[in-house]
Amino acid sequence: KSTATLIEKKKSxxxxxxxxxxxxxxxEIIEIVSFLKNPTVFTKLGAKIPKGVVLVGPPGTGKTxxxxxxxxxxxxxxxxxxxxxxxxxxxxxxASRVRDLFKRxxxxxxxxxxxxxxxxxxxxxxxxxxxxxxxxxxxSTLNQLLTEMDGFGTNSGVIVLAATNxxxxxxxxLLRPGRFDRHIYLELPNKKEREEIFAVHLKPLVTDGxxxxxxxxxxTPGFSGADIANICNEAALIAARKKNEYVNKxxxxxxxxxxxAGLEKRSKIIxxxx
Length: 274
Ligand code: ATP
Fold this sequence. Notes:
Domain AAA+ ATPase: 49-190
Protein name: ATP-dependent zinc metalloprotease FtsH
Radius of gyration: 20 Å
Bound molecules: adenosine-5'-triphosphate
Function: Acts as a processive, ATP-dependent zinc metallopeptidase for both cytoplasmic and membrane proteins. Plays a role in the quality control of integral membrane proteins.
Strand content: 5-15%
Binding site for ATP: 57-64
Subcellular location: Cell membrane; Membrane
């Protein structure tokens, strides 16, 4: 992969309107938007703005989406880095990438750094990884990340958001005060929240006007926001394949079947004995 995919500065057009449900997480993270927009309100009272926040939740629950929405709401640049990409890297590259990322972010403050899959870098030392030899590299990357977190001032205008499915795997050093000392939890959506997510992802589709969001939500217990987005797109693809003019209920039912089949396949790969 090119380095361009590793560190990108993007403007985010997403806002909280694009994030359905997740009300508690939004309430907590809205404070970050206020810090970025108007830091002096906080600093003049002597408040220390948090540097690092971990978004914790199952795959597809909207962690990346929420981080982008924070950048969009605050209208600040968004730098991203994915933990898993470090696993593939040459020795010494990870640490220098981290250094480079923080240097660039500080120049553009106020801004957000988003580290997806932080557990790939910040896994508790000694808990082992899939690749031996990748371990030293991961550790030097983690150490660099800790150094950077300590090195920038509390009120420098850089806020680091990180995402993980498994907060319990994270190295305790990452979670110390002044580093990633705040956690925001994202849960799988309940029925009402699934309705809201369907509403967001139905908006761009041309349906026959009879698609019932309540029914779709009742057919999709345990589905994530990403699964629902996937269903809506699949339904449109199915309708297009049939050369239909509108996306209708049966296209959604077919799409749900298809996504369920995909999920089953995925879980078989993960747990072949079950
Ligand atoms: P992963 O852990 O797999 O990286 P994630 O939690 O970061 O997943 P996202 O990448 O943010 O999940 O979600 C994928 C897509 O699913 C989003 O781009 C969006 O289209 C849809 N989605 C997920 N959650 C929501 C939500 N709460 N509201 C609207 N759309 C959602």
